[in-house]
Amino acid sequence: MKILQLHNPYGAAHQTPTKIIIHAMAEYVYDPSDRTYKHAPTFLERQNYSVHAMGAPDGTIYRCRADDEGAYHARGFNAGTLGYEVLVKGQHDYASFEKTIRTAYMTGEQYASAVEQCREWMRLHGITEVVRHSDVSPGRKIDPGAGFPWNKFSFDIRRHQ
Prior knowledge:
The structure is a single chain. This protein is an alpha/beta fold. Helix content is 28%, strand content 26%. Strands 1, 2, 3, 4, 5, 6 and 7 form a 7-stranded mixed β-sheet that branches. Strand 4 and strand 5 form a beta hairpin. Helix 3 (108-125) packs across helix 5 (150-158). The longest helix is centred in the last third of the chain and has 18 residues, at 108-125. The two termini are 19 Å apart. The mean pLDDT is 96.
């Protein structure tokens, strides 16, 4: 698993993680302010948001916040949670992103690195609860979407624990 260390400055200085929240966003996000597509880590930082890790389609993980730092990734649920963002391949505005996450979108490498990262977090921090962004913000958020293999993922992160 290839890990690239980045550091996003937005988030609380300290936390003790007890839960993981799985998200999804476009790998390149349309920014209407200048009508360009920005790479997801850059886009989040420019919006003053953050997440602990992002999984790219090639399996690379971008580490954006340390586990003991808070991140701004799930309104009302930032404290004590680790955020993992699955990056949906390509350039998307919100409409194309919403459509894409309705069907299978993860690559094999991306799935494997997401399972590995979550297993590591669970082992390091004694975490047992892993939820979707849509679980903590129903009616407001739909990610990671119907195209995310939630049942298989839930089983695989707990296998061999």
